[in-house]
């Protein structure tokens, strides 16, 4: 589509880790002596006089890779890709860079290298600084200044190189400036520090110099500028979660083809977040991060990236967009049609034809409105929702039937066993036929398989036991009470309570004196911005590995379980405290004491209420097994409660309460794999202590291994199903991301606890659980 206001080139500036509120807000650093009233005066003047602005909302995880993929490719990459790092996995799909005549990318090597493998030859020219400069303990503004110096050198040297000069001056050129300083400064010094404030000032100065440089070099005003960030930063220097501090990033667009500043609309476009910025008199136009890719393409008139799922802000006819409206509503309606065509593909051809008809008859407003609805539509959500919910219920029923019901087969097994399989097969065939007609993804077929399999196995047991609930009200109340308890955990999960009192002081590290001196020396080196020298890092690793691994390596015969638990508690506590902060160390001790008391209470209760003959049943082969009773559900509920305490007690991972500066004692340069390992070790420590305690409790109460854990799985899935039904795709950005986080966290509980229980069984297999308690009623399970 011809567009007279296309820019010849676009400069895309990304401030890695830049918070929107700290960029726009007046007196954002009021606690810093001598701080200016406006920290970024040049960017703010653009917002107030000649640019369009808003908030770009990132998706969870609010990390560097997903953010860059979103605003360069127009799609939200699968979240699992964030675990694969930058260097190993390139961006193997289309992007704005691929559609440009040439893209000149300058910045961090960990970011730029990912966009080269999938691009056409010579399409992307990259200039990256030395990876050794990515040191989190040194002045980060030098990286940003290096980016501008490189840009200046490219334009200066282009006059002496014909091919470079031709590429630089060609139309549809993209110049990508990645400024990594704010991310490094935010992690090491926190976003409310003087260093972060000075880094914002550096970015503001670079933006001003860049615009002046382009005006002088090209001698025209045909350049468009887009400034944004990949993610924000929490007050403790982290990101990745769904909090507005991490997901709200600034978006400022100005230059050729961009509308200027507009007065605020009625009703106001501002909420509580932006009212504090002092820009309430100007229109705020928010976008999703993936929408920026389409905006970049529209500014220079290139094709949109293939499979882009964003929406051009100007598609919505009810709000002003970012482009100049000089071409009238017809152009905007055609742009909306192209956006819809690239998004829905084969789906919705009838709707696309209706939009074309509206354009032909001149009803451009309705055409844009229909396109916006079509782009935002979901098609398979109700069907998949029903399948997943039914599969969850079937799985829960199967778990309960496997453990709680008698070992013999249901009464109708020989007469009507074919019925559930016939019904399940019929349902499976119907679902597969529907998916085939819709050309659905392969994972939909897997969802249907799980649904039908679970119910085929669970229904014979459930149908033979349903009538018994009416005869035994106690069982009915037990089931209702258990489900109610899981829902209570759902509702109170966000509370982070103080689970301990100031009565616990214990020495966990034998080398406490040497560790104290070591930490003192490291902190002094970090404050002086000298980094952490090798002579200080090496002892830290030696102390961590030697003390932390000793209990897992050294064993002496068939040990006492209490001694075994204590040794692992001290060893695990060693590496937990190395990455702990504030009262987290006290939590670890208090949590272990609470588990110890739990074992004592359960043992005394079962000792005073010995097992009756009804708990010992024979299966079809004549083997004596333990039949769980209603009272045993209490143990499973307590374990589920302690699981949540173990996860949320040290700090809610959804709000990134993991202080990276504590890791600087061990590493100082960017190493995502090592950072993840240290974080996982910290999270795993309370789970391991819980699993070890659960293993001891199983044996001391003479319970078959893993029987209660199967019940825990079923109860966990009751919570997971609740969170699944609470997942939102409308509302505030925080509510949407938080609902996804809740569901994913609850889903991972099962896997996380399963791994911990397996490890605990392996660690406790050579302990004699009778040695500390005398003989027990019933059977005694040995670990060999």
From TrEMBL:
Residues passing through the membrane, by range: 383-405, 417-436, 504-523, 535-554, 574-599, 633-653, 673-694, 706-725, 745-764
Keywords annotated in UniProt: Endoplasmic reticulum, Glycoprotein, GPI-anchor biosynthesis, Membrane, Transferase, Transmembrane, Transmembrane helix
Presence of the UniProt keyword Transmembrane in the record: yes
GO MF term (any one): mannose-ethanolamine phosphotransferase activity
Cellular-component GO terms for this entry: endoplasmic reticulum membrane
Matches recorded under InterPro entries: Alkaline_phosphatase_core_sf, GPI_EtnP_transferase_1, GPI_EtnP_transferase_1_C, Phosphodiest/P_Trfase, PIGN_N
E.C. code: 2.-.-.-
Subcellular localization, as worded in the UniProt entry: Endoplasmic reticulum membrane
Database matches in Gene3D superfamilies: Alkaline Phosphatase, subunit A
Membrane topology: Multi-pass membrane protein
Pathway: Glycolipid biosynthesis; glycosylphosphatidylinositol-anchor biosynthesis
Broad enzyme group: transferase
Single GO BP term: GPI anchor biosynthetic process
Residues annotated as domain GPI ethanolamine phosphate transferase 1 C-terminal: 378-459, 493-732
UniProt keyword annotation of Transferase present: yes
Pfam families tied to this protein: Phosphodiest, PigN
Known role: Ethanolamine phosphate transferase involved in glycosylphosphatidylinositol-anchor biosynthesis. Transfers ethanolamine phosphate to the first alpha-1,4-linked mannose of the glycosylphosphatidylinositol precursor of GPI-anchor.
Similarity section: Belongs to the PIGG/PIGN/PIGO family. PIGN subfamily.
Protein name, as recorded: GPI ethanolamine phosphate transferase 1
């Amino acid at each position: 589509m011809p567009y007279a206001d296309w820019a010849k080139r676009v400069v895309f500036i990304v401030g890695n880790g830049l918070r929107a509120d700290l960029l726009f807000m007046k007196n954002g650093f009021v606690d810093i002596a001598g701080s200016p009233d406006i920290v970024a005066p040049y960017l703010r003047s653009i917002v107030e006089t000649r640019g369009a602005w808003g908030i770009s909302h990132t998706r969870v995880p609010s990390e560097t890779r997903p953010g860059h993929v979103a605003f360069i490719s127009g799609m939200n990459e699968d979240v699992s890709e964030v675990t694969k790092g930058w260097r190993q996995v390139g961006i193997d799909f289309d992007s704005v860079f691929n559609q440009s005549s040439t893209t000149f990318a300058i910045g961090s090597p960990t970011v730029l290298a990912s966009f080269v493998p999938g691009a056409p030859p010579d399409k992307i020219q990259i200039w990256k600084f030395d990876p050794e400069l990515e040191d989190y303990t040194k002045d980060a503004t030098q990286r940003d200044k290096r980016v501008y110096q490189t840009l200046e050198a490219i334009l200066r040297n282009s006059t002496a190189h014909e091919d470079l000069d031709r590429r630089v001056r060609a139309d549809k050129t993209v110049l990508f400036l990645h400024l990594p300083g704010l991310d490094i400064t935010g992690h090491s010094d926190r976003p409310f520090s003087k260093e972060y404030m000075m880094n914002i000032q550096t970015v503001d100065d670079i933006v001003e110099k860049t615009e002046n440089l382009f005006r002088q070099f090209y001698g025209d005003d045909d350049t468009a500028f887009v400034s944004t960030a990949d993610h924000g930063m929490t007050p403790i220097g982290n990101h990745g979660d769904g909090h507005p501090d991490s997901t709200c990033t600034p978006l400022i667009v100005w230059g050729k083809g961009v509308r200027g500043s507009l007065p605020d609309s009625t009703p106001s476009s501002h909420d509580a977040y932006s009212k504090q910025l002092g820009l309430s008199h100007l229109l705020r136009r928010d976008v999703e991060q993936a929408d920026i890719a389409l905006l970049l393409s529209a500014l220079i008139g290139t094709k949109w990236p293939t499979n882009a799922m964003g929406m051009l802000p100007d598609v919505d006819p009810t709000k002003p967009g970012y482009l100049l409206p000089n071409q009238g509503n017809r152009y905007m309606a055609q742009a909306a049609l192209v956006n819809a065509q690239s998004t829905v593909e084969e789906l919705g051809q009838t709707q696309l034809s209706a939009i074309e008809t509206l354009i032909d008859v001149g009803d451009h407003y309705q055409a844009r409105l229909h396109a916006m609805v079509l782009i935002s539509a979901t098609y398979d959500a109700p069907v998949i929702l029903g399948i997943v919910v039914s599969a969850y219920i079937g799985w829960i029923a199967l778990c309960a039937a496997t453990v709680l019901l008698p070992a013999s087969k249901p009464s109708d097994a020989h007469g009507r066993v074919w019925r559930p399989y016939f019904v399940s097969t019929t349902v499976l065939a119907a679902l597969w036929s529907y998916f085939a007609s819709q050309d659905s993804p392969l994972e939909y077929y897997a969802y249907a398989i799980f649904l039908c399999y679970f119910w085929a196995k669970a229904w014979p047991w459930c149908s033979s036991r349903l009538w018994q609930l009416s005869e035994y009200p106690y069982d009915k109340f037990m089931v209702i009470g258990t489900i109610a308890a899981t829902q209570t955990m759902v509702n109170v999960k966000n509370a982070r309570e103080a689970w301990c009192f100031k009565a616990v002081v214990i020495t966990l590290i034998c080398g406490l004196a040497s560790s104290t001196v070591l930490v003192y020396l490291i902190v002094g080196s970090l404050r002086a911005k000298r980094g952490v020298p090798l002579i200080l890092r090496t002892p830290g690793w030696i102390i961590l590995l030697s003390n932390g691994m000793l209990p897992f390596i050294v064993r002496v015969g068939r040990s006492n379980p209490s001694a075994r638990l204590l040794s692992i508690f001290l060893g695990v506590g060693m590496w937990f405290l190395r990455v702990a902060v504030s009262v987290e160390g006290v939590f670890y001790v208090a949590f272990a004491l609470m588990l110890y008391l739990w074992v004592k209470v359960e043992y005394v209760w079962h000792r005073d209420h010995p097992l009756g003959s009804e708990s010992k049943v024979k299966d079809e082969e004549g083997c004596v097994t333990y039949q769980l009773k209603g009272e045993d559900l209490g143990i499973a509920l307590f374990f589920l409660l302690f699981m949540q305490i173990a996860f949320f007690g040290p700090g809610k991972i959804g709000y990134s309460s993991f202080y990276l500066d504590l890791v600087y004692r061990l590493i100082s340069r960017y190493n995502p794999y090592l950072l993840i390992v240290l974080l996982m070790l910290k999270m795993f420590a309370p789970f391991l202590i819980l699993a070890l305690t659960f293993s001891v409790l199983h044996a001391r109460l003479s319970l078959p291994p893993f029987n209660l854990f199967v019940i825990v799985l079923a109860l966990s899935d009751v919570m997971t199903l609740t969170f699944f039904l609470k997942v939102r795709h409308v509302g505030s950005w925080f509510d949407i991301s938080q609902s996804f986080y809740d569901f994913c966290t609850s889903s991972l509980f099962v896997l996380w606890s399963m791994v911990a229980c397996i490890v605990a069984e392996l660690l406790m297999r050579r302990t004699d659980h009778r040695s500390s308690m005398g003989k027990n009623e019933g059977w005694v399970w040995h670990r060999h």
